[in-house]
Amino acid sequence: MLLLSTERFRGYSLLQSAIALAVMALGMFFLVPRLDDLIDEAYQAHVKAVGSALQSGAHFYRQRWMTEEHNQTLDQVQMTENGWPAGWVAGRTSTETDTDRCTGLWNSLLDIEVPTLTTGQDLNADFRAEEVRGKCRYYHQLSGNKYFIEYDTATGRVSWNIR
To answer: Is 22 a domain residue?
Structure first.
């Protein structure tokens, strides 16, 4: 009967430990710089997805405005004279763009899993709304306001800056 000696198998040798550390160091060397790129790509994808949802919402209301003038759906948002959503602000009939109007647009055009929005300095919100030259601009806060979505109420154009 052959018995195995347990004295030979007490643990890893110094050489095995050094090789394992070298492999982990190489992995860190290549993966950590890529991690920043992956996070940045995730931010870009989030901005594109929300921008596309805003665009779909704007086109939904525009289509209703063009085909069914007295549709109940149109009661939820004020429309410009050109038939683009201008947002809804309680007690206001003017469609002049400001941060309140931009917030109203956000809430009107996005209806499922709405990202959080602020008009101030709440860093916990996903986006921050601002009125810039008559357009609503929504800055992506996690990217350090590097990326943003812009909505023009005059033309219904939704664009996003992810450069």
So the answer is: no
Q: Is 116 among the domain residues?
A: yes
CB 137 within 8 A of CB 150: yes
Separation CA 159–CA 152 (nearest Å)? 9
The β-bridge partners of 87 are: 78
Segment 80-120, tens digit of pLDDT: 888 899 887 777 666 677 888 888 889 888 877 789 998 88
Taking only Cα atoms into account, the Rg of the chain, rounded to an integer number of angstroms, comes to 26
The whole domain housing 113 covers: 37-161
Q: Mind giving me the DSSP string for 77-98?
A: SEE-TTS-EEE--TT-------
Please give the tally of structural domains in the chain.
1
How many C-beta atoms lie closer than 10 Å to residue 157's C-beta? Answer: 13
Q: What is the mean pLDDT of residues 23-49?
A: 89
Task: Look at residue 95 in the predicted model and tell me its pLDDT.
Answer: 66
- For helices 99-109 and 14-67, angle between their N-to-C axes, nearest 10 degrees: 100
In a domain, 10, yes or no: no
Task: Decide: 91 and 130 in contact? Cβ < 8 Å.
Answer: no
Q: Is residue 119 within 8 Å of residue 129, measured between CB atoms? A: yes
**Is residue 8 situated within a structural domain?**
no
